[in-house]
Amino acid sequence: MNSFTGRCSPLLTDLYQLTMLQTYLEYEMVDTAVFELFVRRLPSGRNFMVAAGLEQVLDFLENLRFLPDELDWLSQRFPAQMIDYLEQFRFTGDVHAMPEGTIFFPNEPVIRITAPMPQAQLVESRIMNLLHFETLIASKAARSVLVAPDKLLVDFGMRRAHGAEAGLLAARASYLAGFSGSATILAGAAFDVPLFGTMAHSFIQAHGDEMAAFEHFAQSHPENTVLLIDTYDTEAAAEKVVELAVKLRQKNIAIKGVRLDSGDLALHSCNVRQILDQGGLKDTTIFVSGNMDEYRLQALLSSDAPIDGFGIGTALDISTDAPTLDCAYKLQEYAGKARRKRSEGKTTWPGRKQVYRHFDDNYLIGDVVALEAGDPQEGEPLIAPYMRDGKRIHEKMSLHDIRQRSLSGYARLPKTLTDLGEVPDYPVEISAALQALATQLDAEQMDK
Fold this sequence. Notes:
7-stranded antiparallel sheet, alpha/beta, TIM Barrel, 2 domains, nicotinate phosphoribosyltransferase
């Protein structure tokens, strides 16, 4: 596990995972169980999802241990037999999953856990916690990438994220989805996410004199001189930047960019671009931030605002318009027999499954969810093995390569799925054999 991200206690789970585990042990229900995680339906406004978080899941499973102080605490609440079991606990199961960066749709398994029942059950809550959040953020970030594919996009949201881990993993998920980088330093240390940052308004205010603040920053950061120019009067500050550029040029310092964070960004960016160009700073970029999301990006770009990059914060890191996914981690097989949940509105498709993707002229046209064995289908299979007997079977893929997978996936989306508005559902077919198995299990259950 990356030393920067630390250890997650196995006690970060729901109580019922441990109460069920106790009963499984007491009644020797330790046969192989198969669980799959999937999304039941897309949030309003979303046309697809981007799988993310698998790397954190694999880390969690590989390093899952109960420490002495955790066992001491549990021993006051659970019987000795269970504490003995947890003392030796290691995840020994298999993991199959869609690779991170894969585009997916409802009813398609994102991950499959195959392990003895107590193990497969115990890991549910943390697996959902990780995959739900990173997939949510990656899918939100993808929308900005599609709106502004050639612009600098930077995650600015850590300070308003719902906790430290959320801020860190949002930086990872947004970069995975195609963002240029993040302002969160720990994301650079832990995941090699490119870092971007300039200054706050307090830096300008602390100096009293705006020009002095600009000059001091440029002297300290000659390779990354990006100046925040909207603390007082945006256009007047842009004039100061032009004036300062002449002085800095004698010291071989170039003003790389300016940042706007308030007001009418379309109007200000046009005015500032004109001032910079007239002052000979045609290569100085304009970067904007302040309550950004994909809709505001689209509006600014549609107005031909001369903006080169965007900092996107709160709306991204908490996915304000769609803060949750209707996802589930459900038992699909136990002791060699397929299982099916029939709860009203929450039925599941039983058995171990594979997803096959079909293309026409290199664009996605439909998927088929089928049984993994004995149900052959045409198309590209999306689910692959990642862990066997509790050990990874592949070297870790770099986050930069995963990001490229995401970008390659967007290029294969039909135009309808790249729109921000709701569009007709992407076709996901349930194979005849899988439907037949569900019908068979329903009939058997009716007989009991």
